[in-house]
Amino acid sequence: MSRTSSRSTSDYTTCEKPRSTVNSVLDSPFGGRYEIDFAPEGPNTRVSYRWHVEPTTIVARLLLPVLAPLMARSLRVDLRTVASRAAADCP
């Protein structure tokens, strides 16, 4: 199975290091606000993602109810990948 990647442009509307960032997605049909929070949890850090999707096209608006579960699954897989790589890099 191959994994594809994509890129999009976003604008940081909030950046409160080291606690959180808020980005506005600028160039995707599934735009909106993407929030990331970092919270201490013992010796580790809990990372929470929230994506408030705001479709920018009529087609995206119509497809969102069907694609939302697939997009959520993809984000969960990505988060697990980031977590496992971070854990592997820690001594």
What is the residue-averaged pLDDT? 79
Structural class: alpha+beta
User: How helix-rich are the residues, as a percent range?
Assistant: 25-40%
Query: What topology, given as strand order, has the largest sheet?
Result: 1-2-3-4
Report the principal-axis shape. globular
Question: Terminal Cα separation, in Å?
Answer: 30 Å
Strand coverage percent: 35-45%
Number of helices: 1
Write down the Rg. Answer: 15 Å
Low-confidence parts? none
Characterize the largest beta sheet: strand count, sense, and whether it forms a barrel: 4 strands, antiparallel
Order of helices and strands: EEEEH
What is the total tally of β strands?
Answer: 4
Produce a short descriptive summary:
By secondary structure, the protein is of the alpha+beta class.
Question: Can you lay out the helices and strands and say which pair or pack?
Answer:
Blueprint: E1 10-16, E2 20-25, E3 30-41, E4 44-55, H1 58-89
Antiparallel strand pairs: 1-2, 2-3, 3-4
